[in-house]
Amino acid sequence: MNIPRIQAGRRKRSHEIAELIEAAIASGEFEVGTKLPSEKELAERYGVGRPSVREALFLLQQQGFVDVTSGARAQVTAPNAKFLSDQLAALVKRTAARDQGQNYMEQTRLLFEAGVAWQAAQCATGEDIERLKRALDANTAAMGDTAEFIRTDVAFHYELTVITRNPVFSAVHDILVQWLIDQRTTTIHMPDADRLSVRDHTAIYEAVAAHDPMRAFHEMTSHLRLISQLYTESKRLHHEIMRNVARDVAARIDREKEAMWSGLRGPAEPAGKRLRKRRARP
């Protein structure tokens, strides 16, 4: 067999080795459940050092292609749905933490959930509508209970993806769910946030129940725009309040410090009295 050997170049050798091993797995040369050749054998096969092979195996493990155990040869594995979902969820978390990350996530959610609402309105059965109504009722009943309201809020949105009977939509919801919970935890503390959400959820439910895709699309879009604005204002107010609190605390500490030092120095003499003392000196 003609085994490719790595040529010196600008790309990291470990990435090229990882691609070659992945290709060998895809071709069936290295089958799922079998052991890969040892690091030494792979290094000889591709004409590189063992550190490059070790890093390549680490990359493949991160992608779910192999399982690496210390002291043993790597075993070929098949990426499963949970593994891929976890990887994408981690990507979502990193994206949201970057500059403009929140905007990117809100844009993604807007396009995704508005489309889900449209599709749900098109294909909802009578049983689907009853199940969505129960989710809405549970969300309404949870008003005033922050933790339960957030849980039932997310559950209402998930029920819409279930109605579409599209497993890709359900998977995308699972990938976004932690970000959704974080966002909802921030916005729920705004005045009337729960009442406004229930109002919007009711409008979305009614559009789906009426099999009106356009209305469902626009009701969801309006709802998500509201949540986005509440999130922005909540963050702004939080920073403003915390900044003012920090200033007040610092000013109070300064006053207390000045009062303490003034007490240690004793009462200051009037200026006229100090002047008479200096004149009275021989």
What's the average pLDDT? 85
**CATH architecture annotation name of the largest domain:** Up-down Bundle
Distance between the termini: 112 Å
Q: CATH superfamily assignment of the largest domain?
A: GntR ligand-binding domain-like
Taking Cα atoms only, what radius of gyration do you get, to the nearest Å? 31 Å
The overall strand count is: 2
Please identify the top-level CATH class of the largest domain: Mainly Alpha
> Which strand order spans the largest sheet, edge to edge or round the barrel?
1-2
**What is the string of helix and strand elements?**
HHHEEHHHHHHHH
Decide which structural class fits the backbone: mainly alpha
Q: Give the count of helical stretches.
A: 11
Low-confidence stretches: none
Task: Record keyword descriptors for this entry.
single chain; Four Helix Bundle (Hemerythrin (Met), subunit A); two-stranded antiparallel ribbon; 282 residues; mainly alpha; Arc Repressor Mutant, subunit A; flat
Report what the structure shows.
This protein folds into two domains: 64 residues, Orthogonal Bundle (Arc Repressor Mutant, subunit A); 155 residues, Four Helix Bundle (Hemerythrin (Met), subunit A), CATH 1.20.120. The model has no long low-confidence stretch (mean pLDDT 85). The chain is flat and about 75 Å long. The protein has eleven helices and two strands. A two-stranded antiparallel ribbon has the order 1-2.
